[in-house]
Amino acid sequence: MTPAQRRALRTHAALLVDDQGETPLCTPALFGRQAPLWIEIGFGNGATLAHLAAARPDHDFLGIEVHNPGIGRLLLSIEKQQLENIRIANADAGEFVQRRIADACAARILILFPDPWPKKRHHKRRLLQPAFAETLARKLIPGGVLHLATDWEDYAEQMLAVLENVASLSNCSGPGRFSDPPGYRIPTRFELRGLREGNAVQDLLFERI
Predict the structure, then answer these.
(1) Alpha carbon of 46 to those of 63, 64, 153: distances in Å?
(2) CATH number, domain at 100?
C-alpha cells in the first residue's frame, strides 16, 4: 500500500462495514436512507464503483474486496470526488454476502472480471459456483439484476450454465445468450488487458423473477 492509501484507510475508517456482525444489512442500516442498492463484488481498484456512485447520487453502493491496496485506492477516489454513497466491506465475498446482506435487498449485483483460475484443477476455486449463485439470487429484489463479465471463454460458458440453472433467475438476453455490455459499465484494467491479449469479453445479465 502507498502512504496515501494507508492514510485514507485511517481517515475514512467510518466507511468500512463491520464484517463481524451477524445482523443482515440493507440500505437503511448502511446509509441511513432508503435507496436502490448496488453491490460490486471484487471491485479491484474501485474505478467502476466510484464512477457509478458519482453518476448515480440517488443510489447507494457497497463494494466488497479482500485486498487493502484496492480499498485504499477507492477511498482516495471517494475523498477526491466527495462521494457519500459508497460503503466498503473488507471481507471474503462468499461468507459476507451469505451472512451480512439481507435477502431481497440489492437492486443490482456486479461481479466484473473475477479471477478466472484458468487451470482446470483450480476451477473449483472460481467464485461463481452453484451454491453462491443461489445465494446471490436471494439477495436481489424482484426485478433486480445480477451482472457478470469475463474475458475467459470457458469461464463465461461456466457462468452461463450455472446461472441458467438457478430457477429464480432469467437470462435478460434469452436462454443460452450473452448480453451486450450495459452503458454504465466502464472498461476495467483486467478487461483492457484481456482485449490486448485477444480475448473476447462476455457480459451476462440475469434478472430475479
Answers:
(1) 8, 10, 24
(2) 3.40.50.150
**pTM score:** 0.94
DSSP output for the chain: --HHHHHHHHHTGGGB--TT--S-B-HHHHHSS---EEEEES-TTSHHHHHHHHH-TTSEEEEEES-HHHHHHHHHHHHHHT--SEEEEES-HHHHHHHHBPTT-EEEEEEES-----SGGGGGG-S--HHHHHHHHHHEEEEEEEEEEES-HHHHHHHHHHHHT-TTEEETT-TT--BPPPTTPPPPHHHHHHHHTTPPPEEEEEEE-
Range of the domain at 175: 3-208
The answer to whether 115 and 67 are in contact (CB under 8 A) is no
Q: How many domains does the chain have?
A: 1
Instruction: Please list the active-site residues.
Output: 115
Divide the 209 residues of the chain into consecutive groups of 10 and give the mean pLDDT of each group: 92 88 80 94 95 97 95 96 96 91 96 92 93 97 97 95 98 97 88 85 97
